[in-house]
Amino acid sequence: MSRTTVVQVTLAIALIVLVGLGLTTFLNYFKFERSFSLLIGSRFDAVLRDMKNTIETSLALGLPINALRNTQSLIERETQQDPLILSIEVFEANGNVVFATDRDLIGDQITNEWVEAWRTHDTAGAWRLREEDALVIGISLVNNLDLEVGGIALRFSRDFHDSSLKAMLLELGSAVAILLAAAIILSLLGAFLVLRATRSSFTAMTAALNALSRHSNQSPPAHRGSDPALAAIVAALWEIEHTAKEIRRLDEEG
């Protein structure tokens, strides 16, 4: 067995290990991504529900959303407490923004994507969107008649979310590289040790066959190896060769 064979066996094993590690890394990454996204979402979902309860308490008094003046200070306070929050907007059922941490947005309409997400989601749950620079989570506002009268939308930075996922991906990649390097080294060593014995057997077999061809008209060549099975094979081959030659000789004489 040549060094090329050892390298080929090692590469085959390394490829199998790489595929296995790649699939494991892929599944673990997306499992982490989903769990981490849910964790971050639940954090801001709790903030939204606290604001929802506060605003709906005032709505229960029969006041319209645009009359709840304490809402502006409420959303500004929440934004100041968490640096990841980019903006909070409170809007009416027609999509008109009545309160916003960015006061320039007051009086504007929420985007069509927000409107669609808000109108198609479960009233009791939160809706989520992904924007270029932010993640959006929103929730409906319901009055005491169980009617949706508007909603709250909270935008938070993707930087922390994306940087955490990138860091995890780098850690997984480093782990895969280390494991793959270890697998290649172990495979190379194992292939060398295993194939060395096989190579020795083939070398002995070749030597025995060469000896057989040299002693075809003599007695069976003595095998100097310690393997009785190999010696028996050599003897049997000699007998076959010797018998075949005797048959050809008798045919020629007849």
Protein described:
The protein has 254 residues and is α+β, with helices and mostly antiparallel strands. It folds into two domains: 163 residues, PAS domain (Beta-Lactamase, 2-Layer Sandwich); 40 residues, no CATH class. It has five helices and five strands; from the N terminus they run ααββαβββαα. α1 runs antiparallel to α4 and α4 crosses α5. The radius of gyration is 39 Å and the shape is rod-shaped. The protein starts with a helix and ends with a helix.
Structural key phrases:
254 residues, alpha+beta, Beta-Lactamase, 2 domains, 5 strands, rod-shaped
Range of helix content: 55-70%
Nearest-angstrom radius of gyration? 39 Å
Domain unit count = 2
**Individual helix count:** 5
Q: What string gives the helices and strands in order? A: HHEEHEEEHH
Strand content: 5-15%
User: In angstroms, what separates the terminal alpha carbons?
Assistant: 46 Å
Overall outline? rod-shaped
The largest sheet has its strands arranged as 2-1-5-4-3
Number of strands: 5
CATH superfamily of the largest domain: PAS domain
Averaged pLDDT, please? 78
Low-confidence parts: none
Protein name: HAMP domain-containing protein
Keywords: Membrane, Transmembrane, Transmembrane helix
List the helices and strands and how they pair.
Blueprint: H1 3-59, H2 70-81, E1 85-92, E2 97-100, H3 112-120, E3 126-130, E4 134-142, E5 148-157, H4 158-214, H5 228-253
Antiparallel strand pairs: 1-2, 1-5, 3-4, 4-5
